[in-house]
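Issue: ligand-bound run for flavin mononucleotide - logging full I/O for the record.

Environment: standard queue, default settings, no custom constraints.

Inputs:
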Amino acid sequence: MKKSAQDLKEKISKAVVKRWMIPALTAFVVIILIIIAVFYRRGPQVIAPVEPSASPSAILNPGNISLPSPELRSSSSIESVLKGRRTRRDFMDTELTLKQVSQMLWAAQGVTVDWGGRTTPSAKSTYPLSVFLIANKVSGLEPGEYQYIPGDRTPIHQLRPLKLVDLKKALFETLNESSFRNAPAVLVITGNMGKMAESYGGIPHDKEVYLEAGHAGQNLYLQAESLKLGVVTISGFDEEKVLDLVTIPDTDTIIYLIPFGIPKQ
Ligand SMILES: Cc1cc2nc3c(=O)[nH]c(=O)nc-3n(C[C@H](O)[C@H](O)[C@H](O)COP(=O)(O)O)c2cc1C
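Outputs:
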């Protein structure tokens, strides 16, 4: 009698477990899936606007976007790239990959050695240049302005979202330069004259900053040629008008605007 009561109790509890087990497990899986979906919808980017930093080397921010590692090999020789280098102002309305953009940013200011040396030389190893990316059509990037974070001693090679608004039309209309019409990406090279003066005991040395921007510009020409991209280095613009559109630190002067993309022809 006692045994059959116990059997009955066990049978009931098994039935209860069977009845609730599947709905409970289903609910658990659904909750996990909802959490994953919410996390992915939020994406890796931080909502702009964010203030740009005058010392982009040191910043490490969880909202930054890691760039693909730069390629260190190519099938084109330096000589063929020098021979083929040309200014190209007309671009296809084609999206660039993040890999192509990453390679261009690295060519402009990437850190290449453990003491902080970069792809461009710098007077007294000052590194007064900053690079900003205006992404119009780049895979994986919302249109807007980003700051390139090269790193200090260790390469960081990231993008920091600054202002996630589409600037393409405004840039084209403000600057009235055909190269901005379709360019999927534009680099803005700025220089911190105060930082260079500090390296010279407080005596201004702006010349060195402009020369360094020239080195970065040539790197970009050669890298673009090797990637079969087109590029134009532009210094003829009204800085005040550009400052109305882009966000750069008060310490910096805009030296170059550099649209690039897949060249037409
Ligand atoms: C310092 C500098 C500033 C330049 N500024 C402009 C510019 O404002 N607009 C433009 O369309 N091209 C600009 N260029 C590109 C030159 O017009 C181009 O280099 C020149 O026509 C020679 O052509 P190539 O680069 O194909 O040899 C600039 C080039 C340099 C080096």
